[in-house]
Amino acid sequence: MSFAYALSFFAPLALLPAALFAALRPGRRPGSLPRWSEASALAAFLLALGGLVQTALGPMAGVGVLGAVARLGLRADLVSTAVASLVGFIGWIVMRYSRTYLDGEAREGAFHGLMLLTLAAVLVFVQAASLATMILAAGMVGLTLKRLLLFYPGRAEAQRAATKFALVWHAGDAMLIIAAALLASRFGTLEFAALAEAASAGGLGLAGTLGVAAIAAAAALKTAAFPLHGWLTEVMEAPTPVSALLHAGIINSGGVLLITAAPLVQASTGAMAALVMIGGFTALFGAAVMLTQSAIKTALAWSTISQMGFMLLQCGLGLWTLALLHIVAHSLYKAHAFLSSGNAVTEVAAIRRPGPVAVPSMAAVLKSFALALAIFAAIAAAFTAAFGPKSPQALALGAILIFGVAYLVAQGLADRAPVALTKRTAASALAAAAGYFSFQTIAQAIWGPLLPPAPMPSALEWALLVVAVASFGLVAFAQALFPLWAHHPATAGLRVHLANGLYLNALLDRAIGGFRTTRSH
Fold first, then answer.
1. Which residue from 27, 293, 297, 464 has the fewest beta carbons nearer than 10 Å?
2. Counting runs of H as helices and runs of E as strands, what totals does the chain give?
3. What domain range is 475 assigned to?
4. pTM value?
């Protein structure tokens, strides 16, 4: 039996009956609604998964309505259905978790309805075939997610977080609308496939270049990139399932947008360079602040900021398949991390504290970085011989990733470190390098035919590659040496400033009027 359209197109519709039921029963313990909401989320996931299987077996037709320029439609390919399956899976897990987590809350029914509507809008967004469809879906996500952030409307912190989110998110929507107007004036269409063909045939032109710049700006806004990242660190004011749902295509929607419009975005060298700079700095900034946080959920939020910055960096380097793989892996990991954060606190508190950690010397740190890079070079050479040459961007990204384990290797090479630790840290570097190239090869085989290859770097891009690798290497080197200067008075002051995010969030608070941001709901 064959279907004219991908099953994933029907996934958003599977969520609407339970959402309507929730509108009729918005209060405490709304009958069988929690079971129905979980069942509808499971049905949406299975439909999305069915669409993924269909597209893996052969091409599927898209669907569209309305006019030629602002056409609303969905597309079905291995990229869209893979992300839809990810969204459906996380959504199902989150709704299952919510059955007991929200049991007995005064507005339990309303919560289920808002979660289902948000999930349905995200499923439309990730399968959008046109910029017009994305704009409508993103607008709906913004409206419903703001209501979720105001689930406890009497809390001033919740009002502040919701207002900041709305300002940043809808600023991203405004940039998408500007991009749509510019691209429509240049190419006469908003469908992504047609835009890619037209840009390839006739170039971007001034209007197209400005339109792509607006898309890049929208992506940065929707991924909580520096300096408008503050709202993401305050979503803890909403119930934990909301934090987990953010990783089902919401906080990474900017990456989905860029990957969907990859041929168009890659045609603009300026936009690609901007993504590298914004993404790289956000990744470093978020990681540095994360290390100073004591609250587990706040640390996870800062980790997400860093990871989304790294994803923007990948997009700016033209490593589209790796960016998509990053979205999948990070979404699964971070949704699990938020949902299990309560148990993690209990388990960590029960662990017996270890003794003093061996402090690496300067020589040990230098040896660790040399060893990690040597392992990386050997693995890169092996994969190049087996699967063909790697792009300069992929090699640079691999070097950045290997810096992430080099400081662990430094612990293993410390003078007082046990032999077992030395072996384990060296094995970690080996596994990281082999894993990076393995997953890159797999992702390229799956999604590579649908996404443009990384371009040959220009002089500007070579400079950005060098700056990016040097910056991440310097930060990793400083982290490895941290035990040597951890007790210096200047370090304590720097830690305080980093723990407060260099006060950028406070500046945004002042700009929007502090806690007096929204009326009580």
1. 27
2. 22, 2
3. 356-485
4. 0.89
